[in-house]
């Protein structure tokens, strides 16, 4: 029996890295990244898809430098909107499923409760606008797709808030952290595991594919906190766990920490739709954090260790 072919874009990113591991049991995974595939060169995307002929395309590549996007809108648009449009077109041509990731930053954060997939987006910054344009391009392409909308992604590797704060905690005795933006920190490992669970259902012999379930699905760890609350949760652990001496943590407002890109005050996303449609339930962010801290504490395998 031939194995299902899965093509992952963005393999060296936070989510892409985890996907390679979590999707391995589902089929034959090919994973690519920049610079061999450059999302600013649509022909490189087409070539990769046409060479792999995948049943599933998972796109974890993106322009994620939220502040820098304010001064590089054309580049952010090319990577976050034009490239996903090409992927959607190629996926439809092949009859494959496209899995893509979206962001809480498509919303303005003015809502007082968690956002639903049906709430009207209104991005406050360039990154959010380009991601929304990507979502819309995929939705209008006419193929089968899952857009998984997540928030505050972090993990044991890559560039993220957790690793930045741990580094700063080793360098400074005091950290001032924004305490008036609310959301759910979401581990890259949980996103990849949930993606694998969704795909396992769709690819199962009786799974039957998406069958009208194409759409946007919020997918974040459960619970909510602020950036300050998140930082407190790992910086108050003993140094043996994080490698950092607990610094003095000062909660501040967004206004006290001006950034080039505006951020939504409310980033909470309701995950009821993905639970009801696919039975996928994400763990609480504190439980996911404990696992990531465990991975960090374990560190790299000692030299000479064999498996
Ligand atoms: N990070 C968050 O907090 C967050 C929150 C909500 C949603 N999301 C979404 O979740 C998804 C995964 O995010 P992530 O945090 O895993 O992203 P990430 O760690 O920044 O990884 C993005 C990947 O895209 C690649 N890439 C950048 N420019 C490219 C180009 N021109 N052509 C091809 N590949 C390119 C990067 O390669 P290089 O490293 O070589 O540039 C990297 O491997 C994205 O769709 C993102 O928008 C992220």
Q: What features would you describe in this structure?
A:
The protein is of the alpha/beta class and about 300 residues long. Helix content is about 40%, strand content about 15%. It has 10 helices and 12 strands. It has helices at about 15-20, 40-50, 75-95, 125-140, 160-170, 190-205, 225-235, 240, 270-280, 285-300, and strands spanning about 5-10, 30, 55-60, 95-105, 145-150, 155, 175-180, 180-185, 185, 215-220, 225, 250. The strands form 4 sheets. It has a 6-stranded parallel sheet, with helices on both faces. Strand 3 (about 55-60), helix 3 (about 75-95) and strand 4 (about 95-105) form a beta-alpha-beta unit. Helix 1 (about 15-20) crosses helix 6 and helix 2 packs parallel to helix 3. The two termini are about 30 Å apart. The mean pLDDT is about 95. The site of NADP nicotinamide-adenine-dinucleotide phosphate has 27 residues, from helix 1 and strand 4.
């Amino acid at each position: 029996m031939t194995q299902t072919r899965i093509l992952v874009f963005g393999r060296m990113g936070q989510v892409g890295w985890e996907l390679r591991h979590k999707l391995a049991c589902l089929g034959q995974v090919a994973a690519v990244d920049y610079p061999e595939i450059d999302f600013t060169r649509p022909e490189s995307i087409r070539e990769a898809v046409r060479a792999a002929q995948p049943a599933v395309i998972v796109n974890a590549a993106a322009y994620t430098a939220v502040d820098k996007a304010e001064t590089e809108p054309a580049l952010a648009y090319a990577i976050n909107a034009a490239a996903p449009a090409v992927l959607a077109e190629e996926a439809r041509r092949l009859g494959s499923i496209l899995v893509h990731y979206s962001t809480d930053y498509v919303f303005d954060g003015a809502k007082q409760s968690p956002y639903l997939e049906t709430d009207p987006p209104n991005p406050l910054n360039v990154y959010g606008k380009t991601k929304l344009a990507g979502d819309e391009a995929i939705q209008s392409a006419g193929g089968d797709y899952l857009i998984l909308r997540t928030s505050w992604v972090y993990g044991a590797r890559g560039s993220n808030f957790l690793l930045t704060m741990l580094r700063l905690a080793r360098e400074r005795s005091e950290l001032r952290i924004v305490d008036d933006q609310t959301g759910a920190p979401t581990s890259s490992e949980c996103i990849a595991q949930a993606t694998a669970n969704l795909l396992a259902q769709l690819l199962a012999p009786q799974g039957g594919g998406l069958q009208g379930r194409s759409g946007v699905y919020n997918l974040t760890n459960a619970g909510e906190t602020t950036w300050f609350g998140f930082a407190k949760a790992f910086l108050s652990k003993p140094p043996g766990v994080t490698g950092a001496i607990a610094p003095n943590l000062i909660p501040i407002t967004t206004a006290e920490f001006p950034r080039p890109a505006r951020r939504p005050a409310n980033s909470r996303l309701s995950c009821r739709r993905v639970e009801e449609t696919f039975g996928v339930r994400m763990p609480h962010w504190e439980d996911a954090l404990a696992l990531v801290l465990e991975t960090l504490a374990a560190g790299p395998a000692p030299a000479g260790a064999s498996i």
